[in-house]
Amino acid sequence: MKPRIKALSAMVAPVALAAALIGVVRAQEIYAGGYRQQTGEDLYRGLCQGCHMPDAKGAAGAGAYPALADNVRLVAGIYPITVVLNGQRAMPSFGEELSDEQIANVINYVRTHFGNRYKDAVSPAAVKAARR
Amino acid sequence: MNRRSLFKLIGAVAGSAVMYQAMTELGHAGESGYTGPVELKGDPKGATVLILGAGMAGMSAALELRNAGYKVQVLEYNDRPGGRNWSLHGGDTYTELGGFTQHVQFSEGLYLNPGPWRMPYHHRALLDYCKRLKVALEPFTQVNYAAYMHSSKAFAGKPQRYREVQADFNGHVAELLAKATNQSHLDRTVSREDREVLLDAMRAWGALDKNYEYKKGFLTSERRGWVSDPGGGTTSQPTPSDPVALHDLMQSMLWRAIAAGHVYEFQSTIFQPVGGMGMIGKAFGRELGDLIRYNAKVTDIKQDERGVTVAYRDAKAGGPVKTAQAQYCICTIPASILSQIPMTVGAPMKSAIDALYYDSAVKVGLQFKRRFWEQDESIYGGISFTDMPNALIGYPNTRFFDDGPGVLLGAYTFGANSFQYAAMSPEERIKKTVEYGTQIHPQYPAEFQHGVAVAWHRVPWTLGCAGHWTEELRARHFDNLCAFDGRIVLAGEHASRLPAWQEGALLSSLDAVRRLHQRVMAG
Question: Does B263 touch chain A if contact means CB atoms closer than 8 Å?
Answer without folding.
Answer: yes
